[in-house]
Amino acid sequence: MKQLEIGKNEAGQRLDKYLKKLLPNADSGFFYKMLRKKNIVLNGKKAEGAAHLAVGDLVTLYLSDETFEKFAAGKKNDAAPKAKTRIPGAWIPRLPVLFEDADILIVNKPAGMLSQKAAFADISANECILQYLLDTGAVSLQELQTFRPSVCNRLDRNTSGILIAGKTLLGLQRMSRQLKERTVKKYYRCVVAGTLTEGQHLKAYLKKDNEKNKVRIYDRKDIDAKGVADGSQYIETEYKPLWHSMGCTMLEVHLITGRSHQIRAHLSSIGNPIIGDPKYGDTNINQKYRRTIGIKHQLLHAYRVVFADGRQVIAPVPEYFSYFKE
Hints:
eleven-stranded mixed β-sheet, 14 strands
């Protein structure tokens, strides 16, 4: 027998959804049968799978240890149990924490690290965040069976800077909503080719080629003339120059809409690609700085976020950005 108390991160969901997270290898028929036979009860009483859970509710499972372990062993076709956060033999780094409260965590992701892993062996920022929360006691392995903290925004592998994660269900929902509604303002810093002396507010349309994982930028007349409106998304990007040197300019970019590869493609479309960008950059310029300075990835950094109440969080710009300043 196992008795589990519902916490704030499990409350509000249906009982059958909670059970599916707890026992991911079991099918809906198993849960229906166990609930009907009262092998699984809610607060000591028979319950329907559609019952909604509240903080303090007790879910009791009259199952053998063997049955529980069989169905809790991990998602079907998963490479390893979800409860195992550490990868055997791997070192999970501690990312710099920029801000933390009871519900959210903001870290500074280095370039070269995925925001979320694509394969089991990957060490992504999300794994670093989970390990930090386990190490500090903010979550337990048991809690990870039914709720997993996660990043709310994503950065490209080779873009560094601010990554926001929800530590709790409330934090995850709140931050995801604010990012979707654009009440959180996001500012980036980057080094681009060319000398820019005045800021601009750029407006265009972006269309993604999923097969190539690449986007194209169109202005309104291109949309009308080429008929590419289907699948295109309106974008806005605002920037101001901070300094220029060596034929390059450091920009602070306000990402207003936030589409895939938006900053990289939008700046490239006006003739000022980001230094080191292998996808939208200038090959000759990239080779020059790779050979002379050792730049191997785009110089794009998520620098600052400003919340609706005026609070802001800043991630220091990596030192190698200053290589371009005389």
